[in-house]
Amino acid sequence: MRLPSFPSIVRTFYTISNTTTSRFISSTPASQKALAPFTRGIVLKSMPTIPFLGSLFSSSAKDMTDYPVKKSDDEWRAVLNKGKSTSPRRLNHFPFQKENSSTKFLEQFRILREKGTEAPFAGTYDKHSPTSGTYTCAACNAPLYRATHKFKSGCGWPAYFDSIPGAVTRHTDRTFGMERTEIVCSNCGGHLGHVFKGEGYPTPTDERHCVNSISLTFRDEEVGENKA
Prior knowledge:
The chain is of the alpha+beta class. It contains 5 helices and 9 strands, in the order αααααβββββββββ. The protein has helices at residues 6-26, 36-46, 51-57, 73-80, 101-114, and strands at 134-137, 143-146, 150-151, 159-160, 168-173, 180-185, 191-197, 207-211, 216-219. The strands form 2 sheets. The chain has a 6-stranded antiparallel β-sheet. The protein has a 3-stranded antiparallel β-sheet with strand order 2-1-9, with no helix packed on it. Helix 4 packs across helix 5. The longest helix is centred in the N-terminal third of the chain and has 21 residues, at 6-26. The chain is globular.
């Protein structure tokens, strides 16, 4: 019998944690419903900073790399608020909360600029399987992955076995006492996810770029080079 891998255990814990939280909040008495938006905001903001959960599902060190596209946090918020969110689904992980554009943009900023992680099996591109086209950075539009790089991994996030040359930069992430490889957009430094090696997938590289859907947009045409 093949035991589940550590990433699978982590994803299961993540899902259970968010499900438990949403059920707890959704059971709030009617008299307290007026406080729901405030409560949701606290939960959303605090999730990445809870020591255990934040360590597991985000990247720790601040990236000091000099990327071609440079913006302040306020400038990035303005860019992301222009409507580049990619997922029509609820991206805040709370089933009772009505979908609206502001929560999508908040989540996009949290993941791309604050190195967060979206819930497994929730992203637009998890089961997206085009035969051609290009996945680009949702923040700066730089080409990152070909459609032909994508494969079905069953991990709950979009998986790619390779990237467009030079499009993705790797950093060592030592969060929670373990070493992982974080991947970011080489053009703007936007957080994409992590890359894992040697998992046995039948791909040319035996690598899995585990990427947040919200960090991506998709274009039907083939785009050759990484540019701002």
